[in-house]
Specification:
The protein is of the alpha+beta class and about 400 residues long. It has a six-stranded mixed barrel with strand order 2-3-8-5-7-6. Helix 2 packs antiparallel against helix 9, helix 2 packs antiparallel against helix 12 and helix 9 crosses helix 11.
Length: about 400
């Protein structure tokens, strides 16, 4: 009976191609939208996670910040509460593997007739390891160069591309804020950061040179801290906060003039946010599946009306209530399954096209495909039940007399 029901449902689809396609359109669009939007959500989450992971999962960042007191608060970048002595105190913690002070600003960089505005970071030799940087050519700045306040620079691939245009940068002199610097290294490409920023658009120089010869300041913009493997980042963060409060004479944590963030908590927050966004996108797209189910119910009701005499003949020949309802339910499910299969193909193709056209990373997984396909089958059963019951309840005498 089931085999015959499937064959009849398939022949009905083939006989009314355009009507069947229009009926399945809601299911096709719904399944395709679920797969495409969820793949975009997964892609965004993976891209952000990879970007954060590239900075190191055991990384902590210490920023200057205004005290949390009433009144107008200056922006965090305007405060000057972090000093080199704070960095030196943090490095003495047993839980700290490496740390780098960072004094940064944006400057115009010039080489021959070319110029490029970029971020210049004054840092130490640990800056490379704390940020998971690798070198494409040359070498990183050394401790001896930091002590001697040498004018040497390590440049990112974006800076190298815009200033040197294929020429080997190693050993060449560039000018940063009208000060000459010799390029000693080129960093490997990292790509876009969590906020879409270009991580390769950067120059690294000794922090002593940056603070004394370029900026003329005695404060830091950031202190980057890498905890030892196996250390509890929350515990390390508390230790850093306690040290800085003691050094800055702060007794009330509400009056902290600094902020400490760790990458583990940031990554957890990002994953939770992107997961909610992905679920929301999938739920919005699933609404069109309900619209498709209404379309199936509508066309099945029309089909019951068109086949009233056929149903009467079947019941007169002995077809039971169960036989009739099964036949129409199978037709509704077959229509949903075919629409779901087409929707899967369209959804995968759409996610690839969106990824290529909008330069977004999309991740197609089996979970949303199975879920949307199963949901489309459920939609067929639910919305096909009413027309099937209506057909099964027809009086055979009235059906035979129907014109």
């Amino acid at each position: 009976m089931y085999k015959e029901g499937f064959l009849m449902a398939w022949s009905s689809l083939i006989a009314n191609k355009m009507r069947s396609l229009l009926t399945m359109l809601g299911i096709i669009i719904g399944v395709a939208a679920v797969i495409a939007l969820v793949s975009i959500g997964y892609g965004v989450r993976q891209q952000i996670t990879e970007s954060i992971s590239s900075l190191g999962s055991n990384l902590l960042m210490v920023y200057p910040g205004p005290p949390r007191t009433p009144g107008v608060r200056p922006p965090s970048g305007a405060t000057k509460s972090l000093k080199l002595s704070d960095y030196e105190a943090i490095t003495k913690l047993d839980s700290v593997e490496a740390a780098s002070p960072v004094a940064a600003n944006t400057y115009l960089t010039v080489y021959m007739s070319k110029n490029w505005t970029t971020t210049v970071n004054g840092a130490n030799a640990d800056f490379q390891y704390v940020n998971n940087w690798t070198l494409k050519a040359g070498r990183f700045i050394s401790e001896s160069q930091i002590e001697r306040r040498e004018r040497v620079a390590v440049i990112g691939s974006t800076v190298a591309k815009n200033l040197f245009a294929g020429e080997d940068p190693i050993g060449k002199d560039i000018r940063i804020y009208n000060s000459p610097f010799k390029v000693v290294g080129v960093l490997d490409e990292k790509g876009s950061g969590t906020m879409g920023n270009d991580q390769d658009d950067v120059i690294v120089v000794p922090y002593t040179t940056m603070m004394e010869r370029v900026m003329g300041v005695d404060y830091l913009r950031t202190i980057l801290v890498q905890a030892k493997e196996g250390q509890d980042l929350e515990r390390v963060q508390v230790d850093i906060e306690n040290i800085l409060r003691a050094r800055h004479g702060i007794r009330n944590p509400d009056l902290d003039d600094f902020n400490v963030n760790n990458m583990a908590s940031i990554m957890k927050t990002v994953e939770e946010s992107t997961s909610r966004m992905t679920i929301f996108l999938g739920a919005v797209a699933a609404i069109s599946l309900l619209v498709g189910g209404i379309g199936i119910m509508n066309i099945m009701l029309v089909s019951v009306t068109e086949r009233t005499r056929e149903i009467g003949v079947r019941k007169a020949l002995g077809a039971t209530y169960r036989t009739i309802i099964t036949q129409f339910l199978i037709e509704a499910v077959v229509m949903s399954l075919v629409g779901g299969a087409i929707g899967i193909i369209v959804g995968i193709g759409a996610s690839k096209l969106i990824g290529a056209g909008a330069n977004l990373k999309t991740v197609v997984t089996t979970g949303p495909i199975i879920l949307s396909f199963g949901f489309s089958m459920t939609i067929g059963l639910v919305f096909g039940l009413y027309p099937a019951r209506k057909a099964a309840k027809l009086n055979p005498i009235d059906a035979l007399h129907y014109e």
